[in-house]
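Most newcomers find our protein records easier to grasp once they have seen one. Sequence and backbone structure share a record, each on its own labelled line. To make this concrete, we reproduce a full record directly below:
***
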Amino acid sequence: MINGFIHLSYWEVSILRTVGILAAVLLPAGTFVYLFLFKMVSFMQSRLGPMEAGPFGSMQLLAEVGKFLQKEDIVPERADKRLFKFAPYLVVGTVLLVYLAVPFGPDMIFADLPGGVFYILAVSSISSLGVLMAGWSSANKYALIGGLRAAGQLIAYELPMVLAVIGVVIQAGTMNLSGIVAAQASGSIFGLDFFGNPYLLTQFVAFAIFMISVQAELGQTPFDMPIAESELVTGYITEYSGLRFLLFFIGEFASAGAFAAVAATLFLGGWTVPAAWTDLNSNWFNLLGPLIMLTKMMVLAGLIFFVRFTFPRFREDQLQKLAWTVLIPISLVNILATTILKVAF
């Protein structure tokens, strides 16, 4: 301890960062499962959902995890065993990498990268390799078709997602996520800085495109072609059981949390409130920032799961047509308009 401050060694800081990332991944994922998968869809369908395990079924998720951990880990005889076993870890690992560059407070960031936006868009696409790997290595035709569908879908919707983010980068003038958050907190609209300048207002077209692309990247309805139960059993995870099936399940909801965190950072000001309200450099925001961020993530995740439980599934041709003939042209027009307005004003 020096001058009243505790100075930690490199390995102690590394351990704390690792624990922090795991908490950032698992806590939102578990919250999403309980609030949205167990409860919100139940109320939408006029039923109670899980009620027995813990108060109002709050321990049901732990019961589900315990059940899957006890199940036998089966590997098909003709499967490529190494790739089959590695695929779910690659998908979950991708989520951990995304959280590395997302700021949760003035000092609550694991890697403050100058090109944070580029890094997140790059590592988020790695999950498509894990999905394709799972489908191909399973030695199952349904799994292979699901993996190929997932790869084609992820490739198609990566482009509109990237183009949507470019509008934010142009307006903020930086690819650093902390810089984008600061630009929204300290910005103004028509000379008024009381509400800052959340890019949801000025980049609402980019926000809509980004959220549609996120829905497709997650494989959520109406973009759930890779795991269409009525056609492909459960697609690329058909042959998985036990722990590895659980990892895919966790990866789905953890990915929803990661994309919600990225969307909150890019369009809702991240962990901040408008700078006109208070001093954002206060150490209090290292405590309040994660709570503000989690609140914004919950709102966006609620939107994602509301769409999942409401809309019917697209056909494969409709899915591809939406990406290539609608979202990409609109996102290019948004980039052009943002560039013109940036130069003019």
The two ends are 50 Å apart (CA to CA).
